Amino acid sequence: MSMHERKWSVEIVIDEHDAGEAGSRTRAQARLRTGDKTALIGVGTARRNPKDTEIPEIGDELAAARALADLAHQLIEATVADLEAATREHIHLEA
After folding, report:
1. Comparing C-alpha atoms, which of 21, 72, 29 is closest to residue 47?
2. What is the pLDDT of residue 73?
3. Which H helix or E strand runs over 87?
4. Backbone phi, then psi, for 68, in 5-degree steps?
């Protein structure tokens, strides 16, 4: 175990809303908490066509994946902002 090990946690909260004839919509939030002041929330959604078979796990998976992707994008943007503040130079990071 490293002396500099840190633990971050991501909580994923999923809810589903019935949109009637429009099918259902699943929304996920991926909430990142770090040991410092960082708290980011990624959001993702999935929509089920009313003609599709209802398998809630699929909507949960897709919404959660999209929320995690949004969270990852926000984390990269936060890193760029921190680097630019520290170096006073324009920074470009690839995802």
Report:
1. 21
2. 96
3. helix 56-87
4. -65, -40
CA-to-CA distance for 78 and 54, rounded, in angstroms? 37
Q: For residue 66, what are the contacts with CB-CB under 8 A and spacing of at least 6?
A: 28, 43, 44, 45, 46
Stated length of the chain: 95
Tokens 């949109």 sit on residue: 19
Distance (Å, whole) CA 68 – CA 79 = 16
CA–CA separation, 10 vs 18, rounded Å? 26
Q: The whole model's pTM is what? A: 0.85
**Is residue 66 within 8 Å of residue 27, measured between CB atoms?**
no
Ranges of the chain with pLDDT below 70: 1-2, 19-22, 95
CA distance 88 to 35: 25
Burial of 42 (0-12, 13-18, 19+ CB in 10 A): buried
Question: CA dist 10 to 22, 34, 64, 82, Å?
Answer: 31, 9, 11, 21
